[in-house]
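In this section we walk through a basic example: taking a raw amino acid sequence and producing a predicted 3D structure, encoded as discrete structure tokens. The instruction is simple. Fold the sequence below.
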Amino acid sequence: MTSFVVPDWPAPANVCALQTTRLGGVSAAPWAGFNLGDHVGDDPAHVAANRAALGGLLPTEPCWLQQVHGIIAVDAAKMAKTTEAIIADASYSRESGAVCVVMTADCLPVLFCDRAGSVVAAAHAGWRGLLAGVLESTIAAMAVAPDELLAWFGPAIGPQAFEVGDEVRAAFVADSAQAAAAFVAQPAGKWLADIELLARQRLQAAGLTAIYGGGRCTVSDAENYFSYRRDGQTGRMASLVWLER
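The resulting token sequence is shown next.
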């Protein structure tokens, strides 16, 4: 049986959101089982079957993105009409029924909505996109005062598992001195990074304070989550949000 996580945030009643896990589905190892990524080497028929099963819960086909660790945010409703690959790392929508989605397997997925239930968004925040400003560009695209927005963090690599080099820490600290609090020194010039704290700092700096979710480590929970850092070749989970029709 396929299992989902329903985001625990006080979103308006017309905002719907869903987080998939790896449980269920038809994909075989190393993508077992509910893999939604069509770019990771899995049998296309298995991916299609998994997406079809997910589709039964959604009002329309999600606006699947070709994610590149950038900062582009696109309008999900408009992009639904194109047959071209959508190269972006976030999507937003003000139209009911248009489904925003990002796929992850360690990177931090962030869902957004406003308190009035007029706009939603989904962003893919790996460390490169986070540093470049993907969360800020998503907030800007939503065109709502940041203090009117809510954010929810989906499952991502945890602070005890995310080892990075000194250049990653240096880049974040050069951008914002407070980022130093998100890194713990390790031997040989390495650091453990807290991607959720880094994201929280950037959201707060942008004026958004209502932040929920987090605390689910993809690396340590192999039963429920895919993890690229842990397994290399693996599947992808989806974080989805939309306005109810």
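Looking at the output, two observations stand out. DSSP finds seven helices and 13 strands in the chain. The chain has one domain: 4-157+210-243. In the next section we compare this with other chains.
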